[in-house]
Design brief:
Elements: E1 7-10, E2 13-16, E3 28-31, H1 34-40, H2 45-52, E4 62-69, E5 76-83, E6 88-89, E7 101-110, H3 111-114, H4 118-128, H5 143-152, H6 154-159, H7 165-168, H8 187-193, E8 206-215, H9 218-224, E9 230-237, H10 240-257, E10 273-274, H11 278-312, E11 318-325, E12 327-336, E13 352-361, E14 364-365, E15 371-374, E16 382-386, H12 389-394, E17 398-399, H13 409-415, H14 418-427, E18 431-434, H15 437-440, H16 451-461, E19 465-477
Parallel strand pairs: 3-4, 18-19
Antiparallel strand pairs: 1-2, 2-3, 4-5, 5-13, 6-10, 7-9, 7-11, 8-9, 8-19, 12-13, 14-17, 15-16, 16-19
């Protein structure tokens, strides 16, 4: 596989036709610039994308976003949809951190109002919001309460006083997937999640205080309640150890069940079962429960951030712009091309809608008019975009989710020094609080692709449009 195997559809959309390999059921499509295509061949992400096209019941195409890189089974930055209800559901198409996602809070205050208290704010956020591998929080849930969290998500948190009802109107799926069933989640997974509500975790998860540095679309920014120099808080975390265990449990279950359904896949990491099967239904219910746990987790962190913010800034408030998942499977209606071999873009009028099982793994929902939150790597920018009609036609209403790694964690540790990272962050006037400064090296900006390039590609491809760019001021990490 190399660049010569790709057919150029537009300057920012490329295709590997299904004739490339005998087991491909649909084409593989990549959103990328010519320059960024070279980066996609540095790991197995393109090979993984082609493998995804062999999933039972896959529709239209498998997609890779410009932030794509190698993952488990699917590339991170991958999107695929299978037919409902008998198409495949694959845990590799969601990932281990179920409903890893982002929430953006917007402040009443401008940068000038907060700049003299940023060190204090950073210290309080780091002290009060638990972060780090396996670290638990102050909220300990008994079995009954945990079951309520898994079934009801952010709705449970609001009911318990950790927010207000309006918060739910600014969360994807209102912060709750109805198909969730706490009974489908193993005792081991529940044990891992029992004390992790309101905690950040480690890896690339963070809390980032920033300011609106640039506005690209004034009208949409105003409708979102954003303005230049306004301060914001970005929360990036997921379902913690509970979600990881749900993935582990059901990958093992599906590995044993695949032969029963006579399913073969080109990569064992693409383990899957029919969505309508007992195993598929149980996994979807457990995945939905883990997704609900993640939305409750971000709601609890929001509650903690709001308390600290009000304490430091004389009762000032934070409201939610939006909260969106980027590791999840959803049942949605989408356009399906009448002819998957036709690589020319067809208008919606020549297509028809089907109910599909949409897998987004390191990809963000981008429905028309919906805020799309794209976090950058530490020390660079984050973006607010808006979803488009074209995303519905081109990518199952999906876009990128971040910068995307270009170095493994091991490579980053080998190539980037602590002193260099510290100096770079100091030059940018970014305050960082972390449990381990050496661990921060894994998340250095150099370990990631250029966020500006990634966002420019999805903007020019039309699957999301730029609204505003955010500059980091404070970063809290585990």
């Amino acid at each position: 596989m190399n660049k010569q195997n790709l057919i150029k559809i537009t300057d920012y959309l490329w295709e590997i036709p299904k004739s490339y390999r005998a087991d491909m059921k649909v084409p593989a499509r990549v959103f990328a610039s010519e320059k960024m295509l070279e980066e996609l061949f540095r790991d197995r992400s393109m090979e993984q994308l082609i493998n995804v096209t062999a999933l039972p019941g896959i529709q239209k195409a498998a997609y890779a976003m410009p932030d794509a890189h190698e993952g488990y089974g699917f590339p991170i930055g991958g999107v695929a949809a299978t037919s409902y209800p008998n198409g495949a559901i694959s845990p590799g198409g969601i990932g281990y951190d179920i409903n890893c996602g982002v929430r953006l809070l917007k402040s009443e205050l401008n940068f000038e109002d907060v700049k003299n208290n940023l060190e204090k704010l950073a210290g309080e956020l780091f002290s009060e919001i638990p972060s780090g591998v396996g670290r638990g929080g102050k909220i300990k849930l008994d079995g009954k309460k945990l079951g309520e969290v898994l079934n009801n998500g952010a709705e449970w948190a609001v009911k318990e006083g950790y927010g207000n009802k309006d918060d739910l109107n600014h969360i994807e799926s209102d912060g709750k997937i109805e198909n969730a069933d706490a009974g489908a989640v193993s005792d081991h997974a529940k044990k891992r999640g029992r004390d992790q509500l309101g905690t950040l975790g480690a890896g690339n998860h963070f809390i980032e205080v920033g300011k609106v540095e640039e506005v690209f679309d004034g009208q949409i920014a105003e409708s979102f309640g954003l303005r230049k120099n306004q301060t914001t808080v970005l929360i990036h975390t997921g379902s913690r150890g509970l979600g990881h265990q749900v993935a582990t449990d059901y990958i093992r279950i599906m590995n044993k069940a695949m032969s029963k359904y006579k399913i073969t896949v080109p990569d064992r990491e693409l383990v899957c079962v029919p969505f309508s099967s007992p195993e598929g239904q149980k996994y979807f219910s457990a995945m939905a429960a883990a997704a609900n746990f993640a939305w409750a987790n971000r709601q609890l962190i929001t509650w903690l951030v709001r308390k600290i913010w009000a304490k430091i800034f004389d009762g000032s408030k934070l409201s939610i712009l939006y909260d969106v998942a980027h590791n999840i499977a959803k049942i949605e209606e989408h356009y399906t091309r009448t002819n998957t071999d036709n690589i020319q873009r067809e208008p919606a009028s020549s297509q028809y809608k089907s109910v599909l099982i949409v897998h987004r793994k390191g990809a963000t929902r981008a429905f028309p008019g919906q805020p799309v939150i794209i976090p950058g790597s530490m020390g660079t920018a984050s973006y607010v975009l808006v979803g488009t009609d074209k995303a519905m036609e081109e990518s199952f209403g999906s876009t990128c989710h971040g910068a995307g790694r270009q170095m493994s964690r091991h490579q980053a540790k080998r190539m980037i020094t602590v002193d260099r990272l510290k100096n770079n962050l100091k030059k940018e006037n970014i305050i960082v609080k972390a449990g381990s400064i050496r661990g921060l090296v894994e998340e250095a900006p150099e370990a990631y692709k250029n966020i500006h390039d990634v966002v420019d590609i999805v903007d020019k491809a039309g699957i999301a449009k730029k609204v505003a760019r955010l500059k980091p001021l404070v970063v809290i990490k585990g």
